[in-house]
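Running this now, will post back.
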Amino acid sequence: MKEGDPGLACLRSQLGQIDAQIRCLEEFKERVVAAEEACLRELEARKKPPATETGAGVAKSKSSNESDAMSAWVKKWDSEIGAEYFYNEVTGEASWLPPPSAPSLA
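Update: finished.
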């Protein structure tokens, strides 16, 4: 093909359009990846046990008997997440996983 050939001009035009489409798709991919990362961060944040009235993981008293603490686990429902979690009424600790010492709650 020679420089003034209409076929060459047509091919260059098509290549320009393809390049523009590729740039558009690359920008779209970047936005999708950013949105996916934001969604994953949100899901991770939602997996954390809910805050409790006394503060998650904060002990009420150091004088609490360990056996009292182990028997104080109860099942609760987190309506925002739509999942069950476990709450220790003595220590104020909350967990998505059942406590190992309370198999009857699992």
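The beta strands are 73-78, 83-88, 94-95. More later if anyone needs it.
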